[in-house]
Amino acid sequence: MSISLKLPLNTRFGFVVILLESLEANKEALQAAVLKKDLNVAKMIRTRVLDEEVFWPRIQTVLKILKPIANGITQLERDNATLSDAVKIFHNLNEIIDQLIDKNDELITLTDWETIQKAINKRSEACLKPIHFATYLLDPRYQGKSLTNAQLIYAYEIIEKLAGYLKIENDNREVLNNLGDFREHTGFFSYDILWRTTKTHKPCYWWKGMYGSEIISPIASRLLQLPPTSCACERNWSEHGNVHCLKRNRLKHEKVMKLVAVRHSLRTSKPVYNKFTVSYDKNANSTVINDNCTSDDESHSAQELENDED
């Protein structure tokens, strides 16, 4: 399978990884190209492309650093991502960097490694707040593993505040006692058959379905429904923007929301591929790209809703 060389986009971090992967995949082709006598290749470029001791090993090392970051960003942008996933991803990144440092890679200096660690720690401090630690603590997949004592205190404080906000009876610290049973797998949390369902149930549904009677369940289920990024919301706005267009501005808000729900449900149940029609506008002296990404079922459902509105 042939892979072409890629160029990065200014707005997508992951494309840097795609660029480096395409560069590595075309290594032999590039080396063969710079050796051709009929090609006028600069000496510096020829030397770098043929450098097997520094240049290409550095590309591989940089990929080992950037790829987990790109994968983490992709994971957090999913619809089913939770706040607790952010804590886990940053923890994994720190472990990966520590492992690379232990290997004593001479291609990257210790000063560079310290700079990389500082950058990740700075981003971690900016992104992770007490509510993330509380969600990570209540997530049955993670149960607060690897949290520091300070982070655990922040998590306890958030959980206590939410208990007060939700008006949960907590005179004798029942919430924290229940949390202790959860972490130690004691009391009602001691049954292994229920813990095995964490692999098949979403965390919020696990709390509602398996431990809905526990005093801490309302807090956990609410926290585990919060998305870590705005990407899921932006995708919903994209659906809304495609529905609430000039042609359908006569629709009321209720009908627009129904159209959004129908369109999103159809895309979830079966793939709908974009079909682009490219035309050239002579008057505007530009190329026009029309996006026709509506399936037959979707068009039929939308037409029914519009007829109801009429």
Automatic annotation (TrEMBL):
<dbReference type="InterPro" id="IPR012337">
    <property type="entry name" value="RNaseH-like_sf"/>
</dbReference>
<dbReference type="GO" id="GO:0046983">
    <property type="term" value="F:protein dimerization activity"/>
</dbReference>
<feature type="region of interest" description="Disordered">
    <location>
        <begin position="291"/>
        <end position="310"/>
    </location>
</feature>
<dbReference type="InterPro" id="IPR008906">
    <property type="entry name" value="HATC_C_dom"/>
</dbReference>
<feature type="domain" description="HAT C-terminal dimerisation">
    <location>
        <begin position="196"/>
        <end position="264"/>
    </location>
</feature>
<dbReference type="Pfam" id="PF05699">
    <property type="entry name" value="Dimer_Tnp_hAT"/>
</dbReference>
<protein>
    <recommendedName>
        <fullName>HAT C-terminal dimerisation domain-containing protein</fullName>
    </recommendedName>
</protein>
